[in-house]
Design brief:
The chain is an alpha+beta fold. It contains three helices and four strands. The protein has a four-stranded antiparallel sheet. Helix 1 packs antiparallel against helix 2 and helix 2 runs antiparallel to helix 3. The N and C termini lie far apart (about 30 Å).
Length: about 130
C-alpha cells in the first residue's frame, strides 16, 4: 500500500494490516501486528524527512511479514534504545516491536531502507 501521498499514513497502515490478516490469525495476534505496524510507520513519520513510502503485509502459513519502507538509507540507525526509562515519553517503540515479533530487522534498499517484522500467526509468544 502506498503511504507516500497520505497526510495521515497511520490509519491507512493499520487498516491494511487488519484487512490482510483478517481470518488468518487470532484477534490478539492481529492487534499485535497492528501495533507493530503503527510503531514502524510512526518511526518513519517521526525520524525521516519524507516519512514512509509504503507498507506491505504478506501472509505465509505460520507467519505474517510486515514491511515498512522509507527513503532514508540509514538502516543502522534503526535499533531499540536500551536507555529508555519509564518516565520517557518516547523511545519505546522498537522495544515493543522486539517483544511482539519472532524477529525484525532493517536493511538498506536501492532507494532507502525497509524495516521488516515477522509475526507468528498462531498466537505463540515471540521468541
Amino acid at each position: 500500500m502506498n503511504l507516500a501521498e497520505e497526510a495521515e499514513p497511520l490509519p491507512h497502515a493499520r487498516d491494511q494490516v487488519r484487512q490482510t490478516l483478517d481470518g488468518h490469525a487470532p484477534a490478539s495476534v492481529v492487534d499485535d501486528a497492528v501495533l507493530i505496524a503503527s510503531e514502524l510507520v510512526g518511526n518513519a513519520v517521526r525520524h525521516t524527512v519524507t516519512g514512509p513510502d509504503c507498507i506491505s503485509v504478506e501472509v505465509y502459513r505460520d507467519v505474517a511479514v510486515v514491511s515498512v519502507h522509507d527513503a532514508d538509507a540509514d538502516a543502522d540507525s534503526v535499533r531499540p534504545r536500551k536507555d529508555v526509562s519509564h518516565d520517557d515519553l518516547g523511545g519505546r517503540g522498537l522495544r515493543i516491536v522486539d517483544e511482539l515479533t519472532a524477529e525484525w530487522f532493517a536493511q538498506p534498499t536501492a532507494i532507502g531502507k525497509v524495516v521488516v517484522a515477522v509475526v507468528e500467526l498462531d498466537g505463540r509468544e515471540a521468541m
